Each structure stands twice: as C-alpha cells, then as structure tokens.
C-alpha cells in the first residue's frame, strides 16, 4: 500500500468542477466566465507595480524552528507597495489535510489575514486576505492518506512523542479529500449553496466585474478573497497573468513498446526497489535519534524530508510504469490557455504575459529534472505555445517580444532561474523561474550541472542536444555542521513601458549552524 495516494486526473477534474458548479444554468444565464477574475476598482490599475512570489511552503514547525515564519517576516519587511502574492503550489504538506491549515498556513501568514492578530480564531475555510493571495494547487494539495495509515499515524502519536521520535510528517486522519480542503480554503465554493435563491444572490453580489469574456468574479481585499476556479486569469497593470493547475496535465508519456521501452521499465522497477530499501533504512535510523537534542533534531529534519522525497519519487515511477495511451489529459484547460494567450496578443492594451503553475517544465534540482512528470509538463506546454506561435508569431517578432515574458513554477524545492535556448519549438529563448524553496525541505542541484539536454526520438534515430541553461540555483548545500538551508521568495518589480521589463529580487532566509540570517541575492532583469 502506498503511504500517500494521488487521485486520478479524471477525478480531480470532476471533483473541482462540482465544487465551483461549473457552468450550471444560473451561471451560464448570467454570462459569467468562471476562469476570469478582476480586482476591486483602483487596486490594479497603474502600469508600474510589484508583486511577491512564493511556493512549496506548507510545512509545520521543524524541530525547534519554523522556516515559513522566517520567510513571512521577510516578506512583510520587503513587501511594501506590493500588489499581490503569487503562490506556486503545495500550500499544505504532506497530504493537504484541512486540520493542518491552522499550524501550516494561518499562523505563519497571519499578518496577511483579516483578524490575523488572533490566528486561532480563523477557520481554514473562512480566510480573508488583506493582500491578494493567488495560489495554484500543488500535488500535495491533492494527496490523500489511506485510512490505515491515518489511523496508525494518530493512534501512535502519544507513543512516538514519549519516545522522542516526532514524525513531523504532517499527516492527519485522511488527507486533502481529493483537493477538497484546498477548494474550501481558496476557491469560491459554490457547492455549499443548497438553494437556487442563495446561489443567485451570491452571484449577483460577487460576480460584478466585466472582462473581455463577460461577467466575472470581483476579488476584494479585506472583504471577499476567493478565486473562481482551480485555473484562472487576471489582468494587472496591462499584464495578463495565467494561473494553471498542472496536476491535471502531468500524466507521463507512455514508455515505448519496443525493446528500449522494456529496458526502461526494468530500470524503473529496479530503481523503485532501491528506493523502498532506502526508505526502510531511514526509518530505522530515525528510531535511534532523539528529537530533544539539537543535533539529532536537525538530522531528523533532513531524514523526514528524505522520506517525503522518496515517497514522491516512487509515485512518479508508479505513474510512469502505469502510463498508457488512454491516460487522461486536461485538454479543456490546455485549450483554454491556448485561446486566452491568442486573445491576449490580440488585445492592444496588454503589454505582457506571465504564466504560473506548480510543476516546472525545466529544472536542474536533483530530484525533479529527470521525472516523467517534468517532461510531460514540458511536452504539453510546448504544444500549446507552438499553436500560439502559429497564430500570433508574426506579431511577436514585429514587437520584438517573447510569446510569454515569464513562466513561474514550484515543486522543485529551490530557487532557480533558467533560460531556454533553441529547443526547436516556441518555448525557445524564454525565462523560467522555479520558486519552490519558501518553507519546506530544500534540495540540492543535480551533480550533472546547469546545462539541460533533451533526447528527441525520431524515425531516423534519437538525437540529444542542449535545450536550457540554469543561470542561478539556490538550494541546500554543504554537509554536516556546514550544511546551509537558504529558504527563498521573490519580489518582482514591473516597470512601466514597452517592451515589458521585470526586475527580479530574490530574498533569502538562511538557516546555518542552528541560527537564522536574512539577506538577498543580486537582482536581475528578465
């Protein structure tokens, strides 16, 4: 039995549609676009502004310290004048449980919540933000816990505390409820209305903004801060932002049914067995450590992070082994992105485009760069951009602008800036930033280095060539007492004028030798 389970893509799509009552008659009659939102009047008008970016935050306190709170305090210090916060997913670890929102989200980010001076009084499904908080769901926000594990985790908790083996795996009785907790926390949860009149009044009260596609939800800081859907778009300062749910188009590409594919299958099965043996060795080591001792506590933090990493790697292998041609892909969302990008290019007032999603298409973090899901996201996003380029490529060349100015992601627990080269597709020469080091365990860069190669399978034979370079990587480094943990977030300053210029300012809260320090890296322009 798997320690955690990831619902099928078809289930994720169906459940999320039910929660927002996707295109029900009352919504269609009012001409409401459920993938668009607009800010309150005057909130997002000026072309020069700043915003914050964070991701992979949702851990509770580590052994005696809380990285999330360190990052949150620094965000407050450097967030003056910022218009909103983008979150690249994995709001709650390990399995998105609703009971972990108070400790893993509300308390660390209490300064961004109405009533945050008393965080214990805020329910996870009643949060109202003072500054727009705009997340996308991560894979952990969809994860569930098989009931036997939930029972075991809870019934053995007193014994584990007595023995000073604090699991720190942040699992409750169940899990996310197939994304239920995330939907209740952040989406406009229309399923809660049990009368037609109540739903109608709500729509007429909060879906009052006008977009190019009709009526849409109005986001009002300090009053009504809900999102219309799991994927959505909004406009600010002449820039179109596209928030994607990559959990529904990350199914791995099936292995070839040739001898080469069978060799890959045997390699994956062997790797999975090795990971399971490593997991058992780590669990045995954990039982010999005392969480009450500072050095042991640091080691336990690292080992628990390693256990989560192994679980995720095994899930990726299982998905790859099970992949077939019938696997579900969220074509509805991908088609939506294609059409909205084309519309954006055909709208004269728009001067730039930003996409953010959870899974990174390009990354050199050691555990993610080779995952089947990474390659699947790259392949499917590349398909969309190729179609957009066919439609508006001449406009982009004439204006000397990229199809998309910036693509932000998380999932890899690091901060990384990557620039693609000639990929042979429309994702060439674009800027990609991974911001997934804002609170959970950090990871190292792969030993292979900063250059990403890709193998293209063709009828005349395979070819491998360079597709991207990592220009900045900040993650875990060092060994033993010299180990550094630089947690990070971004402030991005948007300049006025055309072509669009973005100044990226990375901030660091580093834990080194059981002490914290705050600082920043050199800003860079994209």
UniProtKB/TrEMBL annotation:
Signal peptide: none annotated. Residues 50-177 form the Calcineurin-like phosphoesterase domain. Keywords: Coiled coil. It holds the Pfam family Metallophos. One of its GO terms (molecular function) is hydrolase activity. Residues 258-285 form a coiled coil. InterPro entries: Calcineurin-like_PHP, Metallo-depent_PP-like, STPP_CPPED1. This is DNA double-strand break repair protein Mre11. The lineage of its organism: Bacteria, Bacillati, Cyanobacteriota, Cyanophyceae, Synechococcales.
């Amino acid at each position: 039995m798997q320690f955690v389970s990831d619902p099928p893509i078809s289930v994720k799509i169906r459940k999320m549609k039910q929660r927002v009552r996707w295109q029900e008659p009352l919504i269609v009659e009012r001409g409401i676009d459920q993938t668009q939102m607009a800010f309150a009047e005057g909130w997002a008008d000026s072309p020069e502004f700043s915003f914050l970016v964070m991701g992979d935050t949702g851990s509770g306190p580590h052994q005696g310290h809380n990285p999330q709170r360190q990052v949150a305090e620094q965000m407050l210090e450097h967030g003056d004048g910022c218009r909103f916060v983008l979150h690249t997913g994995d709001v709650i670890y390990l399995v998105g449980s609703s009971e972990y929102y108070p400790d893993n989200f509300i308390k660390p980010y209490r300064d961004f919540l109405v009533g945050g001076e008393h965080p214990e009084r805020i329910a996870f499904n009643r949060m109202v933000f003072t500054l727009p908080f705009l997340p996308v769901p991560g894979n952990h926000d969809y994860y569930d816990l098989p009931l036997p594990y939930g029972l075991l985790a809870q019934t053995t908790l007193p014994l584990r505390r007595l023995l000073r083996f604090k699991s720190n795996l942040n699992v409750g009785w169940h899990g996310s409820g197939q994304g239920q907790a995330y939907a209740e926390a952040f989406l406009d949860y229309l399923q809660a209305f049990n009368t037609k009149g109540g739903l109608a009044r709500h729509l007429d009260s909060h879906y009052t903004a006008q977009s190019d596609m009709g009526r849409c939800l109005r986001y009002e800081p300090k009053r009504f801060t809900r999102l219309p859907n799991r994927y959505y778009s909004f406009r600010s300062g002449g820039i179109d932002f596209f928030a994607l749910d990559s959990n529904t188009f990350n199914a791995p590409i099936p292995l070839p049914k040739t001898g080469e594919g069978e060799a890959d299958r045997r390699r994956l099965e062997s790797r999975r067995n090795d990971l399971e043996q490593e997991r058992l060795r780590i669990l045995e080591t954990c039982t010999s450590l005392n969480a009450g001792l500072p050095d042991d506590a640091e080691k336990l933090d690292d080992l628990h992070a390693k256990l989560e990493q192994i679980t995720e790697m095994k899930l990726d292998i299982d998905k790859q082994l099970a992949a077939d041609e019938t696997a579900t892909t969220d074509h509805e969302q991908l088609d939506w992105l294609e059409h909205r990008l084309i519309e954006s290019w055909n709208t004269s007032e728009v001067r730039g485009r930003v996409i953010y999603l959870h899974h990174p298409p390009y990354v050199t973090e050691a555990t993610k760069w080779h995952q089947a899901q990474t390659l699947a996201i790259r392949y499917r996003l590349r398909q969309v951009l190729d179609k957009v380029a066919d439609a508006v490529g001449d406009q982009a060349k004439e204006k000397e602008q990229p199809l998309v100015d910036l693509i932000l992601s998380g999932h890899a627990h690091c901060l990384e800036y990557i620039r693609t080269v000639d990929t042979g597709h429309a994702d060439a020469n674009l800027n990609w930033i991974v911001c997934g080091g804002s609170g959970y365990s950090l990871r190292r860069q792969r030993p292979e280095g900063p250059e990403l190669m890709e193998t293209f399978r063709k009828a005349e034979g395979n070819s491998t060539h360079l597709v991207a370079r990592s220009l900045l990587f900040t993650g875990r480094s060092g060994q033993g007492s010299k180990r550094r943990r630089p947690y990070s977030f971004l402030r991005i300053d948007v300049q006025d004028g055309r072509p669009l210029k973005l100044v990226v300012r990375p901030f660091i809260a580093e834990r080194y030798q059981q002490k914290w320090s705050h600082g920043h890296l050199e800003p860079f322009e994209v």
